[in-house]
Give the backbone structure.
Amino acid sequence: MSEMEFFHGFFKKSKRELTPEDTDEFYGLEEKYGRHFVKVEGQLYEFWGSGLNVDAYGFNVVVPKSKHKQLMCMWYNGGAGLHEVVECAIKDHLKSKK
């Protein structure tokens, strides 16, 4: 059943030589590294969850300071997945810096 999802995590430019793809082998690599990967404007980024207990139906939390840029994403999972949503968030962030 489709529902709203919420993700809080961090991202940074990656130095790894990977090409994200929708395959079991690639998702196995993500599991191995403990990170997700997405390409934005030709640059590979890695992102990972914060481990905070967040729920699309409501939550409250103090977000700890971080040296990495943070992501906060909420979406209807019937229309997109985590990688697409994070790619859009990073793309919007980059556009706002121009």
Q: What stands out?
A: Residues 4-96 form one domain. The longest strand covers residues 4-13. The mean pLDDT is 91. Strands lie at 4-13, 36-40, 43-49, 69-76.
